[in-house]
Amino acid sequence: MSGAGRIPLVTRILASAGSGKTFALTSRYLALVQRGVDPSRILATTFSRAAAAEILARVLRRAADAVLDEGKREELAKAMADDDASLGERSFDAAAAAKLLEGVVRGLPRLQICTLDSFFAGVIGAFATELGVGAALRVMDDGEERMLLLDAISTAMEEEDEEALLATILSLVHGKRVASVVRTAEQEVEGLLEILSNTAPGAWDWDVRPAIGNDLEQALLERMTRLAEKKEGGGNVAKSVRSDAAKLETAMRLGGDAWHPNRFGKLAGSAVAGDPIEYGDKPVPESVADAYRDLADVILTESAAGYARMTKAMHVLATSVAMRRTRLAHSRLLASFGDLTALLDPQRNPQPELAEVWFRLDGRIQHLLLDEFQDTSVVQWRALQRLVEEIVAGGEDPRSLFAVGDVKQAIYGWRGGEPRLLAELQDVLADGATVELDERRLVRSYRASPCVIAFVNRLFSAVGSHADLEPTQLAAAQRWSTRFPAHETAIDDAPGMVEVVAVPFGDGGYPDLAAQITAVRERVRALRARLPATANIGVIARRNTIVARVARALQRDGHAVRVIGRGALLDREATLVVLQALRLAEWPGDTMAAFDLACSPLRDLVGLDCVEPFTTPSLGDAAEASRMLRRAFESRGIATVVDEWRRHLAPLLDDHERLRLEQLVAVIERLATTVDRSPGEIAGLVGEARVEHAAGGEVAVMNVHQCKGLEFDAVIVLDLESKLEGLPSNRKVAWSSPSRPTDPVPHVVRWLQADLIDRLTEMGAVCRATIERQTEESLAVLYVALTRAKRELCVVVSETKPTKDGGVRSCCAGTLAALVRSAVANGEERPDPHDPAVWFRDGEPWSPAVAVEGRAAAPAAGAPPPPHIRPATRARHRARAASEAESATASLRLRDREAVDRGIAFHAALARVGWLDDHRDDVELLEAMRIALPSRDTGWLRARLVEVRTALERPRLRDLLTRRSPRAELRTEYPFVRVVTLGLQTGAIDRLVVHREFGGRVERAELVDYKTDAIPADELDALRVRHAEQLRVYRDVVASHFGLAPERVAVRLFALAHDAVVEFAD
Prior knowledge:
CATH superfamily of the largest domain: P-loop containing nucleotide triphosphate hydrolases
CATH architecture of the largest domain: 3-Layer(aba) Sandwich
Strand content: 5-15%
Radius of gyration: 33 Å
Mean pLDDT: 84
Low-confidence stretches: 1-5, 850-895
Number of domains: 5
CATH topology of the largest domain: Rossmann fold
Distance between the termini: 49 Å
Shape: globular
Number of helices: 38
Helix content: 40-55%
Number of strands: 30
């Protein structure tokens, strides 16, 4: 359908790693705008907020580059023409490029480039009345979501059959000891709820044929007893028969696990497995074999009935918790993103109002662009389905669906991602009709050096013929390999190197991860010594526990490390001390919390300075400190008090601790302003909070899921020794795949023991289907990890430790590491006689002296930094030359990095200043700027400090920063998130002052937005116009958060260059 003058109705891009997926999507986006489509009619969605930000930045950058650079303009023109043939017939000169950029920039307030979650949240917000959702509904954060689930489990335990639910919970942990039933249940139930949300009626029910009955089982017991007494087959056979008869009697009495085959002897095991029933190498007498075949039938029937009962019990548990979770969420006006998506899923919410919602949305959205489509869940797809159907139906107005992704990178199945939606898109869309699909496959990498691509081809082209894989794993690997085309590279002459390093096997019979981490430390040390300072290094592990161990080890070696992703807020002592203060305020008798505070730098501020250090405070001292804390929290607010503590502690803390305290203040602020909560409730929620790790650092450490979408000059991969289908202890439940990916799951079963998977045919098929899915996802995990490397790749594995007969140990087979070892012939040819740990090496080390095409060189000393682009002022716009090309580009001018960084430095320093009467020495201000701008040297930062100090002496800024009332509460860099039409809006307000009445109610607020632009004095009024929409958003956020009328929020811009206040009012 890609005829001249028409964009294809449905386009599928299958893009291998580094092959230009984002390039293709942004080309389509810009082609639509160039064709005349209003950007507000285009919805582009992706999987993460970071990816959405990258797509928006790439759209703007490519449009701007086309204005400034003729080569980039020609590149964009060709890309758009490839996507829309009609555009190849149009001229795309500088004037056309400027018009394109103007169209994108003017549409910025209405652009819809977001995550699916954000889009769905926006739809719910826009149509809350139609969907019967309260306008006050609020999206939960991670901590609130976990606390809600815990409360739901507790309520279910109180209201339902506690003993039955407890038995189900304990059965899911394989008999391990548990410290807290509710906490244990949370870990197990969370996965069940995800499955429950997409299962067909009856999926958890199994029609198992009845057991043979007590009378027949009794008859079999008597029969086996007689065979043992007659010693048929000899004394040893009779001994085995007698033992199994006793176990049969026990199983008849106890039931449950007593029927498991491994409870019986070897003869029973052979019968259950369908193998010849032999003792030693000789067959047993037929009378004995016949009895054991009957015993096998009984064992299998009773085992199937037991698994059916356990599956039913899991369904009861999940349903009970889900119902109470929904009830509690409604009563608290809370929702998760998953809840919002479910509201738009016609299968889970079949209310007729949904049709009206999508009908009205259909008028707004003309083109749908879906990024990372392999990670879209079935529920998300069903929520979009009516919109997709309208697009695919066509019509007079040109419409299109554009889906881009890579099944080989589908690593989010554990979160509901369904790669079959991408792989079977044509069938999914057709539903009995004919849908023509325009498909492109991208296999040329614009990221990786030739040796990296060669290694990826070497490993994955043979993955379907690996000798050590089990049959179910092998079937999945063969299917995965059919989707793997041979990769190419667009940078044939780029230097680089690939190594596989094998460390000795652990003494305990398992891989030695400590040795792997040591090898990583050695490689990082060598890379840092050899590579240029601008090179970035990534270390990738499968598990978060290994990520933490690697990060700590590298930090001890003196490297600046940044952990990518989200971590616990309470992973630093400073935040733990604040948590103890919240607990003491709630529970005066918590002497452990009082002891921790008395031993901390906060002792003087919380009334425990009278207690001897490292001495447990008395109950009276603890109670007095608790009263003091409660009074402070009630009069000034918890967030304000904690922020004062943060400032007090700042000189004693390192960068990570300072960041965590700033994040803690922001979390408490959000929790305290949305709902009236006690210190104890906030302490509980803070304990569950997850926040971003510190930015900056020369070495990035992350798990595979966090590295998605990133790239590094050098990558080290470790922790590949887990089984392809995951650890047995993590297998709780199995589910089968429906015939169509959009259909609900047809069958669910409690995970079977390994020796029953082949014998319980129907249940076993469900387990095998799950193993295959998990195996394919593990292969995707390995593919994603290896393809992050641009120049150098090092894979660290453990050596194999053979069995006594020369075979492969079970712990070494069927793992990702085994695939790597097999790809390099298990190290049979060692390339480096001086380093026998290197099993494979290809290419040459990337040297700083080698110019690398496509890599930006480090700027020379004194060289001007790269430019940024920002809108020009109106005066400059009027002063431009009048030629068509010049006037087309007149809405732009270059803003260099110096000005951008200067603005960042001023904002960081002023945020730290707070009130003018709070003493802030130069060290603290300099440190604030250094944290915000880690790449700037000390000399540059000191120069900015002088400018800040000069600005602080000016009268209007001094007046602005002077405290006027003791009840004025200050927030700097006040963060917010709010639901708006078709998306989530986030931001931070530079300075917010809240004024409270004596009763504690907020009566008014003032907000200030700093502007560091160097603009003429006569253009200050233009600032108000230019930033009007931004300021309205800030005003509405503050009014909403504190329950104020908009007119009770004073809004000001402060132009630092002129020491001038610009008042804003509608």
